[in-house]
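Researcher: Sequence recovery benchmark, item below. Answer with residues only.
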């Protein structure tokens, strides 16, 4: 089953909502796994021993279990979610889908942000994980990432390391990881030094300005037994800063897989067409000349992906958390997910009129973003009622 497209929608997702309307033999056929001779290439995730296809599913934006079913039926076995995605409904959806599946046929990763400023951190973090497990209807997850780490002090915090180790010893998680968008080389080295982290989920794509430095750090991690999972591989999902033209995800994925140290990528496909594009790459993963030329043509495009270098924060007179604001901009204008955009901004105590009082913007973005315009275009979303954004 190399391709999933709209014409195959009914045969693949019949059980999603029309099971009572199809013949029994059709319903049975819809849950068959792909043929043995048509598998997606696999790699081993560091020293975890987990063997997974190079293509996995980032479930963050998906809200249709039929797409999850199509991915699973196509040979995708690793699914990535988080405690906060869709206010918990993302984990709940996966729990319902996987509750009757053989646990050996898939692996699940979830994530939880650690509020290390709380005096009650330990109890809160344990309840966070327990809540995720209840939603997923599982006794354990294969990987638990401490979510969206940005500084070394959080990554190596003794209380966090103690709790993560406790979770693993109790059997609630099989492997410990961290996810990051920023300061990646330094964080990889610090994670190695702790001796605790087994997996790193990181943004990795052809637009990265620190690629050589990052690849060297990834190699050090691999040498220490760490496994690496790539996210944000499609640089925001669109070719242009206005979010009008979809990027060729298959070319972006093949570029990622040219690095043998990246075990798998977790693109966030939400439709059958996007899944089909990803499967096209997975069944022909070698980087092609046309891919190289296509990606080279995008190198100078502004697009929507923020490098998260952090230089802008120092330039800004108000020291705004610009990388996070830019990520929210990408979620809205690239992913077309306004609710996710608002959720990303809600913890930043923004007013919706952040640049008021500034006569000019001193920020010089390394990606060429017009920072002031983008801030003005996205921060007002914090004042929009959530029911308008669903």
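Model:
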């Amino acid at each position: 089953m190399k391709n999933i497209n709209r014409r195959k929608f009914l045969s693949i997702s019949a059980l999603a909502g029309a099971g009572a309307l199809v013949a029994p033999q059709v319903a049975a056929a819809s849950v068959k796994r792909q043929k043995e001779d048509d598998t997606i290439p696999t790699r081993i995730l560091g020293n975890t021993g987990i063997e997974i296809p190079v293509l996995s599913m980032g479930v963050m934006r998906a809200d249709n279990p039929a797409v999850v079913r199509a991915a699973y039926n196509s040979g995708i076995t690793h699914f990535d979610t988080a405690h906060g995605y869709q206010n918990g409904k993302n984990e709940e959806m996966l729990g319902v889908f996987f509750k009757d599946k053989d646990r050996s046929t898939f692996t699940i990763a979830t994530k939880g942000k650690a509020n290390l400023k709380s005096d009650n951190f330990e109890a809160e973090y344990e309840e966070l994980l327990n809540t995720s497990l209840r939603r997923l209807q599982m006794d354990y997850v294969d990987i638990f990432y401490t979510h969206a780490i940005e500084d070394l002090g959080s990554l190596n915090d003794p209380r966090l390391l103690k709790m993560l180790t406790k979770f693993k010893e109790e059997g609630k998680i099989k492997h410990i990881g961290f996810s990051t968008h920023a300061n990646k080389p330094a964080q990889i080295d610090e994670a190695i030094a702790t001796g605790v982290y087994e997996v790193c989920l990181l943004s990795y794509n052809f637009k990265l300005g620190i690629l050589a430095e990052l690849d060297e750090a990834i190699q050090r991690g691999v040498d220490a037994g760490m496994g690496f999972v790539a996210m944000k591989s499609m640089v925001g999902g669109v070719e242009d800063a206005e979010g009008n033209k979809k990027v060729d995800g298959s070319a972006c994925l093949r570029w990622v897989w040219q690095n043998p140290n990246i075990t798998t990528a977790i693109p966030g496909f939400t439709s059958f067409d996007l899944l089909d594009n990803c499967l096209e790459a997975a069944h022909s993963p070698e980087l092609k000349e046309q891919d190289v030329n296509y990606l080279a043509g995008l190198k100078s495009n502004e697009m929507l992906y923020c490098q998260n270098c952090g230089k802008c924060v120092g330039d800004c007179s108000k020291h705004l958390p610009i990388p996070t604001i830019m990520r929210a901009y990408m979620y809205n204008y690239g992913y077309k997910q306004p609710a996710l955009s608002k959720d990303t901004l809600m913890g930043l105590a923004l007013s919706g009129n952040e640049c008021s009082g500034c006569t000019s913007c001193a920020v010089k973005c390394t990606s060429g973003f017009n920072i002031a315009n983008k801030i003005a275009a996205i921060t007002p979303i914090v004042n929009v009622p959530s029911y308008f954004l669903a």
